[in-house]
Design brief:
It is built from 16 helices and ten strands. The chain has 327 residues and is an alpha/beta fold. The protein has one domain: Metal-dependent hydrolases (TIM Barrel). An eight-stranded parallel sheet has the order 1-2-3-4-7-8-9-10. Strands 5-6 form a two-stranded antiparallel ribbon. It is globular, with a radius of gyration of 19 Å. It starts with 5 loop residues before the first strand and ends with a helix. The relative contact order is 0.14.
């Protein structure tokens, strides 16, 4: 019997969300330039074809960040209620990362608390930057205090930087998204957020963007700056070890080898980035991982084992599948 497979990087695009934010802001971030087709039934069908037992949903970039504060709070609440109904109707098939209106910390904290206490959220989703403010900014610390108190999981999804640099006609998601994830990691670590809020479990998208390649460079060059070096007293690689990384759009030999050289296999999670990507990406991600020559133990940990340590609700629900597989 096949064991569980948990997709931690899985987006929803309800019609009301698309209509409110607008197809332009959403479509411009993706590689196709348009809003991809999405339906609940279609997602479940593709999950079944790929052998994905569970998907933890999130609202991807731009989220509600392009709206004014009141509208953002209302739409975030609506999206979270929608995702919670998906979980309630199919508790073993779906989880949810809460969408937060980050225009104001009081509102963001209130929505996080509501989502955890009333909706049973599995974590929250944050974007890599908000109008050029990266996640290490002092202004976000009140939210982190609440998330740390709850030992929350925070899924970080990239978005376009404040100043988009276009190259070769490639979309923001092709180059700028991995670069912005790289900036977000640097911001979290060198601002001291990961040190000061050690109970938060961070998931970084797309295998950490460009950071697996740049980590050695960061390690060397921070030795020239004592004020930076004192923030990573045991070195940059050690500072990254507690972070988790999904493999969405990154399950290729070069990127994966760099990631595994930087962090232990216990920190790598399965993710697809559905529905933003080429057709067949769910099954394609499964196939790409299978072609990397990983051991059965490592593949099982990436598919589900590592995620089950992060999400106790799913661990309890999926226990029969897990036990049957190991039995």
């Amino acid at each position: 019997m096949t064991g569980p497979r948990i997709d931690v990087h899985h987006h929803i695009l309800p019609a009301h969300y698309v209509e409110t934010v607008g197809p332009g802001p959403i479509g411009s971030q993706g590689s196709s330039g348009r809003v991809p087709a999405w339906s609940l039934e279609g997602a479940i069908g593709l999950m079944d074809e790929a052998g994905i037992s569970t998907a933890i949903t999130s609202v991807t970039a731009p989220g509600v960040a392009t709206l004014e504060a009141g509208a953002a709070a209302g739409l975030a609440r609506w999206c979270n209620d929608y995702a919670a109904r998906m979980v309630s109707d199919r508790p073993s098939r779906f989880g949810m990362f809460t969408c937060l209106p980050m225009q104001g910390m009081d509102t963001a904290i209130a929505e996080a608390v509501r989502s955890f206490d009333e909706l049973g959220a599995d974590g929250v989703c944050l974007l890599s930057n908000y109008e050029g403010r990266y996640l290490g900014e002092e202004a976000f610390r009140p939210l982190y205090e609440e998330l740390d108190r709850r030992a929350a999981v925070v899924f970080v999804h990239p978005t376009s930087p404040a100043q988009l640099v276009s190259a070769g006609g490639l979309s923001a998601s092709t180059l700028e998204f991995p670069f912005d994830t790289t900036r977000a990691i640097a911001s979290l670590i060198f601002s001291g957020v990961t040190r000061d809020y050690p109970s938060i479990r961070w998931i970084l998208s797309h295998a950490g963007g460009a950071m697996p390649y740049l980590a050695g460079r960061v390690e060397w060059l921070t030795r020239n700056n004592p004020s930076l070096r004192e923030r990573i007293p045991e070195g940059f690689a050690r500072a990254m070890e507690p972070l988790f990384f999904d493999c969405a759009l990154s399950a290729d030999a070069v990127h994966f080898a760099a990631l595994r050289a930087l962090v232990p296999d216990s920190q790598i999670l399965f993710g697809t980035d559905y529905p933003f990507g080429p057709a067949g990406q769910m099954a394609g991600t499964v196939d790409a991982l299978a072609e990397l020559g990983l051991s059965a133990e490592t593949l099982g940990a990436i598919d589900a084992g590592n995620a089950l340590r992060l999400f106790p609700r799913l661990a309890a629900l999926l226990a029969p599948i897990t036990e049957a597989h190991h039995g």
